[in-house]
Amino acid sequence: MTDLADLQTAVRQIPGVAVAVVRWPDPLGPANLRVEFAAGADRRAVTEAVVRTMVEVGRIDLETMQVHPEQGKPAREGRPIFTDLLIEREGHDVRVQVTLAVIGRTHVGTRETTGRRVDLLRMTAEAAVAALNDFVRDGAVYDVSRIDRIGTIDGDDDQVTVQVKADDQLLLGAALVRGDAREAVVRATLDAVNRHVVQIELPA
């Protein structure tokens, strides 16, 4: 059985990898691994390392180059996988929806607000946390504490950090910004809570 969260973590640790994200849009279908090279990386060496990791950690079928979760399970411990982000605007009304997949099920979190000035990064993190709270149900209750974006003037090395409260703990996660900063916020939120999620009792 393939553990998508372990595969994603292992690929991210490869030198020369800037971004590694497992996308799993259909809980009953295949997942896809997207990898972006860091600036100046030896692309051939990085590719070989990624392929080795896919075989050793993910047990990937190299003929299809796809990750096939067994019976729709993204991870044996039940860790959530980010699958979709939807942002809708109508006038001054803004709605953010984050979808996570866990153990063959989807969990959706939303945040809505009205106003001229909207903090989309925080709304996105709060939507991700709402999806997590739907997943854990009677377990820990997560709450967004703080979001920071750190980077250079040109934005090439930007990253976001998210602090999440979980009962009496403060969890910190981070993710590089490659393209959409709001997607990075979701990844940073999951990075903060993934180790904590595996410690709690999963809902039936």
How are strands sequenced across the largest beta sheet?
3-4-5
> Which runs of at least 5 residues are low in confidence (pLDDT < 50)?
68-76
Query: In the CATH classification, which architecture of the largest domain applies?
Result: 2-Layer Sandwich
If you average the pLDDT, what whole number results?
Answer: 77
Query: Total domains, how many?
Result: 2
Q: Could you name the CATH topology of the largest domain? A: Double Stranded RNA Binding Domain
Roughly how much helix do the residues carry, as a percent range? Answer: 25-40%
Shape category:
globular
Strand content: 25-35%
The rounded Rg comes to 17 Å
Class by SSE composition: alpha+beta
The first-to-last residue Cα distance is 20 Å
Give the number of DSSP strands: 8
State the fourth-level CATH superfamily of the largest domain.
Alpha-isopropylmalate synthase LeuA, regulatory domain
Number of helices: 4
Notes on the protein architecture:
A hairpin with an 8-residue loop joins strand 6 and strand 7. With about 200 residues, this protein is an alpha+beta fold. The protein has four helices and eight strands, in the order H-E-E-H-E-E-E-H-E-E-E-H.
